[in-house]
Design goal:
- The protein is α/β, with parallel strands linked by helices and 293 residues long.
- It has one domain: Vaccinia Virus protein VP39 (Rossmann fold, 3-Layer(aba) Sandwich), CATH 3.40.50.
- Strand 1, helix 4 and strand 2 form a beta-alpha-beta unit.
- The radius of gyration is 19 Å and the shape is globular.
- The termini are far apart.
Length: 293
Protein backbone atom coordinates (compact mmCIF):
# COMPACT_ATOMS: atom_id res chain seq x y z
CA UNK A 1 0.00 0.00 0.00
CA UNK A 2 2.79 2.46 0.89
CA UNK A 3 4.62 1.65 -2.34
CA UNK A 4 1.47 2.31 -4.39
CA UNK A 5 1.02 5.66 -2.69
CA UNK A 6 4.61 6.72 -3.43
CA UNK A 7 4.22 5.82 -7.08
CA UNK A 8 1.01 7.86 -7.19
CA UNK A 9 2.70 10.91 -5.73
CA UNK A 10 5.40 10.78 -8.43
CA UNK A 11 2.65 10.64 -11.04
CA UNK A 12 0.98 13.68 -9.48
CA UNK A 13 4.12 15.77 -9.68
CA UNK A 14 4.75 14.87 -13.33
CA UNK A 15 1.26 15.95 -14.41
CA UNK A 16 1.31 19.37 -12.73
CA UNK A 17 2.84 21.32 -15.63
CA UNK A 18 0.38 19.79 -18.10
CA UNK A 19 -2.51 21.01 -15.96
CA UNK A 20 -1.18 24.55 -15.70
CA UNK A 21 -1.07 24.77 -19.47
CA UNK A 22 -4.59 23.37 -19.85
CA UNK A 23 -6.19 25.76 -17.36
CA UNK A 24 -4.26 28.98 -17.73
CA UNK A 25 -3.64 29.13 -21.46
CA UNK A 26 -6.74 27.62 -23.02
CA UNK A 27 -9.00 29.97 -24.94
CA UNK A 28 -11.13 27.50 -26.92
CA UNK A 29 -14.88 27.90 -26.58
CA UNK A 30 -16.68 24.79 -27.79
CA UNK A 31 -19.30 22.37 -26.52
CA UNK A 32 -16.63 19.66 -26.51
CA UNK A 33 -15.05 21.57 -23.62
CA UNK A 34 -18.05 20.87 -21.39
CA UNK A 35 -17.73 17.19 -20.44
CA UNK A 36 -15.80 14.26 -21.83
CA UNK A 37 -17.67 11.07 -22.79
CA UNK A 38 -15.98 9.22 -19.92
CA UNK A 39 -17.17 11.80 -17.38
CA UNK A 40 -20.73 11.65 -18.72
CA UNK A 41 -20.74 7.86 -18.62
CA UNK A 42 -19.53 7.92 -15.03
CA UNK A 43 -22.30 10.25 -13.84
CA UNK A 44 -24.95 8.50 -15.93
CA UNK A 45 -24.13 5.33 -14.02
CA UNK A 46 -24.89 7.14 -10.75
CA UNK A 47 -28.25 8.52 -11.88
CA UNK A 48 -30.52 6.02 -10.11
CA UNK A 49 -28.85 6.60 -6.73
CA UNK A 50 -28.51 10.38 -6.94
CA UNK A 51 -31.13 11.15 -4.27
CA UNK A 52 -30.08 8.38 -1.90
CA UNK A 53 -28.72 10.41 1.02
CA UNK A 54 -26.69 7.39 2.12
CA UNK A 55 -25.60 6.36 -1.38
CA UNK A 56 -22.73 7.33 -3.70
CA UNK A 57 -23.76 11.02 -3.69
CA UNK A 58 -24.00 11.30 0.10
CA UNK A 59 -21.09 13.76 0.34
CA UNK A 60 -22.97 16.12 -1.99
CA UNK A 61 -26.07 15.85 0.20
CA UNK A 62 -23.98 16.61 3.28
CA UNK A 63 -22.32 19.58 1.54
CA UNK A 64 -25.58 21.18 0.43
CA UNK A 65 -26.18 23.30 3.51
CA UNK A 66 -22.66 24.67 3.30
CA UNK A 67 -23.15 25.59 -0.35
CA UNK A 68 -26.41 27.47 0.15
CA UNK A 69 -25.14 29.37 3.20
CA UNK A 70 -21.96 30.36 1.31
CA UNK A 71 -24.04 31.79 -1.54
CA UNK A 72 -26.45 33.89 0.49
CA UNK A 73 -23.93 34.95 3.13
CA UNK A 74 -21.63 36.23 0.38
CA UNK A 75 -24.46 38.11 -1.32
CA UNK A 76 -25.52 39.72 1.96
CA UNK A 77 -21.98 40.69 2.91
CA UNK A 78 -20.42 41.81 -0.36
CA UNK A 79 -23.17 42.73 -2.82
CA UNK A 80 -23.74 46.14 -4.28
CA UNK A 81 -26.86 47.63 -2.62
CA UNK A 82 -29.44 46.76 -5.26
CA UNK A 83 -28.66 43.03 -5.12
CA UNK A 84 -28.12 42.58 -1.40
CA UNK A 85 -30.99 40.63 0.19
CA UNK A 86 -32.84 40.71 -3.13
CA UNK A 87 -35.93 38.52 -3.42
CA UNK A 88 -35.79 38.57 -7.21
CA UNK A 89 -32.69 36.50 -7.92
CA UNK A 90 -32.45 34.82 -11.31
CA UNK A 91 -30.06 31.87 -11.00
CA UNK A 92 -28.33 29.28 -13.19
CA UNK A 93 -26.91 26.05 -11.72
CA UNK A 94 -24.28 24.64 -14.10
CA UNK A 95 -23.66 20.91 -13.88
CA UNK A 96 -26.73 20.52 -11.69
CA UNK A 97 -26.78 16.72 -11.80
CA UNK A 98 -29.86 15.33 -10.09
CA UNK A 99 -30.76 18.73 -8.65
CA UNK A 100 -29.56 18.48 -5.04
CA UNK A 101 -28.42 22.12 -4.92
CA UNK A 102 -30.89 23.34 -7.55
CA UNK A 103 -33.92 22.25 -5.53
CA UNK A 104 -32.56 23.78 -2.33
CA UNK A 105 -32.08 27.12 -4.07
CA UNK A 106 -35.51 26.96 -5.69
CA UNK A 107 -37.13 26.63 -2.26
CA UNK A 108 -35.48 29.84 -1.06
CA UNK A 109 -37.88 32.79 -1.03
CA UNK A 110 -35.20 35.12 -2.39
CA UNK A 111 -34.95 33.19 -5.66
CA UNK A 112 -37.32 34.25 -8.45
CA UNK A 113 -36.24 31.59 -10.95
CA UNK A 114 -33.53 28.99 -11.36
CA UNK A 115 -32.42 26.83 -14.27
CA UNK A 116 -30.49 23.62 -13.74
CA UNK A 117 -28.16 22.80 -16.62
CA UNK A 118 -26.59 19.43 -17.31
CA UNK A 119 -25.47 17.25 -20.22
CA UNK A 120 -26.46 13.90 -18.74
CA UNK A 121 -29.92 12.90 -19.96
CA UNK A 122 -30.28 10.09 -17.40
CA UNK A 123 -29.34 12.29 -14.46
CA UNK A 124 -31.63 15.12 -15.58
CA UNK A 125 -34.55 12.71 -15.81
CA UNK A 126 -33.92 11.85 -12.18
CA UNK A 127 -33.89 15.58 -11.34
CA UNK A 128 -37.18 16.21 -13.14
CA UNK A 129 -38.93 13.27 -11.48
CA UNK A 130 -37.69 14.26 -8.02
CA UNK A 131 -38.98 17.80 -8.51
CA UNK A 132 -42.50 16.41 -8.96
CA UNK A 133 -42.37 14.96 -5.44
CA UNK A 134 -42.52 18.47 -3.96
CA UNK A 135 -45.88 20.16 -4.65
CA UNK A 136 -44.39 23.54 -3.78
CA UNK A 137 -41.81 23.28 -6.56
CA UNK A 138 -44.53 22.27 -9.02
CA UNK A 139 -46.95 25.04 -8.03
CA UNK A 140 -44.39 27.86 -7.89
CA UNK A 141 -42.89 26.69 -11.22
CA UNK A 142 -39.68 28.65 -10.78
CA UNK A 143 -37.39 25.65 -11.32
CA UNK A 144 -36.62 24.25 -14.75
CA UNK A 145 -34.01 21.89 -16.15
CA UNK A 146 -32.27 22.03 -19.51
CA UNK A 147 -30.31 19.28 -21.25
CA UNK A 148 -27.51 21.15 -22.99
CA UNK A 149 -23.97 22.43 -22.70
CA UNK A 150 -23.29 25.84 -21.20
CA UNK A 151 -21.76 26.76 -24.56
CA UNK A 152 -25.06 26.09 -26.29
CA UNK A 153 -27.11 28.23 -23.90
CA UNK A 154 -28.05 31.56 -25.54
CA UNK A 155 -26.81 34.68 -23.78
CA UNK A 156 -29.93 36.54 -22.54
CA UNK A 157 -30.60 39.86 -24.22
CA UNK A 158 -29.85 43.29 -22.83
CA UNK A 159 -32.27 45.79 -24.37
CA UNK A 160 -34.34 48.84 -23.41
CA UNK A 161 -32.76 49.00 -19.99
CA UNK A 162 -33.71 45.41 -19.17
CA UNK A 163 -30.89 42.96 -18.52
CA UNK A 164 -32.11 39.36 -18.75
CA UNK A 165 -28.77 37.85 -17.77
CA UNK A 166 -28.39 35.99 -14.49
CA UNK A 167 -27.84 37.39 -11.01
CA UNK A 168 -26.09 34.20 -9.90
CA UNK A 169 -24.33 31.37 -11.75
CA UNK A 170 -23.27 28.42 -9.61
CA UNK A 171 -20.56 25.94 -10.63
CA UNK A 172 -20.15 23.62 -7.65
CA UNK A 173 -18.03 20.50 -8.13
CA UNK A 174 -17.91 21.12 -11.89
CA UNK A 175 -14.60 22.65 -12.96
CA UNK A 176 -12.56 19.58 -11.96
CA UNK A 177 -14.65 17.41 -14.30
CA UNK A 178 -14.35 19.33 -17.57
CA UNK A 179 -11.63 19.18 -20.27
CA UNK A 180 -11.37 23.00 -20.52
CA UNK A 181 -12.29 24.88 -17.33
CA UNK A 182 -11.06 28.19 -18.73
CA UNK A 183 -13.49 28.05 -21.65
CA UNK A 184 -16.33 27.09 -19.32
CA UNK A 185 -15.57 30.04 -17.06
CA UNK A 186 -15.54 32.40 -20.04
CA UNK A 187 -18.96 31.13 -21.08
CA UNK A 188 -20.29 31.52 -17.54
CA UNK A 189 -19.09 35.12 -17.13
CA UNK A 190 -20.91 36.10 -20.33
CA UNK A 191 -24.19 35.12 -18.68
CA UNK A 192 -23.83 37.25 -15.54
CA UNK A 193 -25.23 40.78 -15.32
CA UNK A 194 -23.24 43.60 -13.65
CA UNK A 195 -23.56 43.20 -9.90
CA UNK A 196 -24.06 39.46 -10.32
CA UNK A 197 -22.07 36.52 -9.08
CA UNK A 198 -20.28 33.30 -9.93
CA UNK A 199 -20.00 30.79 -7.10
CA UNK A 200 -17.74 27.78 -7.56
CA UNK A 201 -16.21 24.98 -5.58
CA UNK A 202 -13.41 22.65 -6.59
CA UNK A 203 -10.26 20.98 -5.23
CA UNK A 204 -6.64 22.10 -4.96
CA UNK A 205 -4.08 20.08 -6.90
CA UNK A 206 -2.05 19.09 -3.86
CA UNK A 207 -0.73 15.84 -2.47
CA UNK A 208 -2.98 16.30 0.57
CA UNK A 209 -6.05 16.60 -1.69
CA UNK A 210 -5.05 13.47 -3.58
CA UNK A 211 -4.65 11.62 -0.30
CA UNK A 212 -8.07 12.62 1.07
CA UNK A 213 -10.27 12.72 -2.04
CA UNK A 214 -8.87 9.88 -4.14
CA UNK A 215 -6.63 7.60 -2.12
CA UNK A 216 -8.73 7.59 1.06
CA UNK A 217 -12.14 8.72 -0.25
CA UNK A 218 -12.28 6.47 -3.33
CA UNK A 219 -9.81 3.66 -2.67
CA UNK A 220 -9.90 3.09 1.09
CA UNK A 221 -13.23 4.25 2.56
CA UNK A 222 -15.28 4.04 -0.65
CA UNK A 223 -17.33 7.09 0.36
CA UNK A 224 -16.82 8.50 -3.15
CA UNK A 225 -17.44 6.34 -6.26
CA UNK A 226 -14.18 5.22 -7.84
CA UNK A 227 -13.23 7.22 -10.91
CA UNK A 228 -15.08 10.36 -9.77
CA UNK A 229 -11.93 12.48 -9.52
CA UNK A 230 -8.78 12.94 -11.56
CA UNK A 231 -5.96 14.68 -9.73
CA UNK A 232 -4.59 16.28 -12.90
CA UNK A 233 -7.89 18.16 -13.32
CA UNK A 234 -7.82 19.74 -9.87
CA UNK A 235 -7.39 23.53 -9.81
CA UNK A 236 -5.34 25.35 -7.22
CA UNK A 237 -7.05 28.21 -5.41
CA UNK A 238 -4.53 30.77 -6.61
CA UNK A 239 -4.94 29.59 -10.22
CA UNK A 240 -8.71 30.07 -10.13
CA UNK A 241 -8.45 33.42 -8.38
CA UNK A 242 -5.78 34.63 -10.81
CA UNK A 243 -7.90 33.52 -13.77
CA UNK A 244 -10.40 36.27 -12.95
CA UNK A 245 -7.60 38.83 -12.66
CA UNK A 246 -5.93 37.85 -15.93
CA UNK A 247 -9.05 37.22 -17.99
CA UNK A 248 -11.70 39.48 -16.50
CA UNK A 249 -10.04 42.37 -14.69
CA UNK A 250 -7.03 43.55 -16.67
CA UNK A 251 -8.31 43.27 -20.24
CA UNK A 252 -8.24 46.70 -21.94
CA UNK A 253 -11.49 47.62 -23.63
CA UNK A 254 -13.40 44.65 -22.27
CA UNK A 255 -15.79 46.80 -20.28
CA UNK A 256 -15.86 44.08 -17.67
CA UNK A 257 -14.37 43.83 -14.21
CA UNK A 258 -14.57 40.94 -11.76
CA UNK A 259 -13.58 40.87 -8.12
CA UNK A 260 -12.91 37.62 -6.25
CA UNK A 261 -14.23 38.71 -2.88
CA UNK A 262 -13.99 35.44 -0.98
CA UNK A 263 -12.35 32.02 -1.03
CA UNK A 264 -12.83 29.59 1.83
CA UNK A 265 -11.32 26.17 2.51
CA UNK A 266 -13.66 23.37 3.54
CA UNK A 267 -13.12 19.92 4.97
CA UNK A 268 -15.23 16.79 5.39
CA UNK A 269 -15.01 15.52 8.96
CA UNK A 270 -16.22 11.91 9.37
CA UNK A 271 -19.32 11.58 11.59
CA UNK A 272 -19.66 15.38 11.66
CA UNK A 273 -19.94 16.59 8.05
CA UNK A 274 -18.53 19.41 5.96
CA UNK A 275 -17.07 22.42 7.74
CA UNK A 276 -15.44 25.66 6.64
CA UNK A 277 -12.00 25.20 8.12
CA UNK A 278 -8.38 24.74 7.24
CA UNK A 279 -6.24 26.46 4.57
CA UNK A 280 -7.99 27.45 1.36
CA UNK A 281 -5.02 26.20 -0.67
CA UNK A 282 -4.86 22.66 0.70
CA UNK A 283 -7.97 20.63 -0.23
CA UNK A 284 -11.54 21.58 -1.15
CA UNK A 285 -12.47 25.25 -1.34
CA UNK A 286 -15.32 27.60 -2.31
CA UNK A 287 -14.94 30.81 -4.32
CA UNK A 288 -17.21 33.81 -4.75
CA UNK A 289 -16.56 36.22 -7.66
CA UNK A 290 -18.60 39.39 -8.22
CA UNK A 291 -19.03 41.22 -11.52
CA UNK A 292 -18.56 44.93 -10.98
CA UNK A 293 -19.18 46.14 -14.55
Amino acid sequence: MIRTYRVSIRALKSSSSRFNSRFCLSRNHSSSSAFSPDELAHFNALASSWWDANGPSRLLHKMNGLRTSFIFDSIDTYSIPQLSRSSELKMLDVGCGGGILTEALARNSRVKSITGLDMSEQVLEVAKKHKLQDPRLVIENKLQYKLCSLFDLPVPEVADGIDERYDVVTMFEVLEHVPDPSALLHAATNLVKPGGWIFASTVNRTAAAYLTTIFIGEEILNIVPKGTHSWSKYINENELREWFVENKSNVPGSGEHWDVVKTTGCLYVPFIGWRFCGPRDLGNYFLAARRMA
